[in-house]
Amino acid sequence: MISYEPLWKTMKEKNVSQYRLLKSGIDTKTLDSLRKNKNINTVTIEKLCNIIGCTPNDILEFLPEEKK
Fold this sequence. Notes:
Blueprint: E1 2-3, H1 5-13, H2 18-23, H3 28-35, H4 42-52, E2 61-62
Antiparallel strand pairs: 1-2
């Protein structure tokens, strides 16, 4: 599973608001997907990195699946 929790921390550290993401071309549907840890494409990850000034490691992390 992918978590976008690091995105919110990185945005806070770099003083980047959700409003700035919206003004830079990230739509509300994508922001909602990020909040819910849903899939987004690599082009969006690249856009986020360019807007925020970071690397993919700063915005997402892989979490191991829990064993059933």
